[in-house]
Amino acid sequence: MNYVINFLLSFVVVYLVYFIFVISRKKIINKIKTSLEARLLITKYKVDVDKINSKELASKIALCNSLIVSLVYLVTLFINNFILSMLVGFVIFLILIFVVYKLLGKNLKKKEGN
To answer: Domain ranges in the chain?
Structure first.
């Protein structure tokens, strides 16, 4: 039960930070289509981000990033050795980036077709 609370708490904190510093600011929300995450979606998954609302794209990216960070944090809680937890966390981080953004790319590609 403690792990679920840690996961949910970290998810909410990361999402709120992203919401406050990116989604709620008009100056930054206009640059979301040129961000690293958007470029990954454009180059690797051929998503046309110009057809997607900037706020919707930023919200989906925030959810994905929150999920990735929270899952990595949750997995590293199980490992007691600091160096091992950093190594495992880094590997899981990379794997989750590719998996979660692939799912996001497919989702956006499907919406793009409609």
So the answer is: 2-113
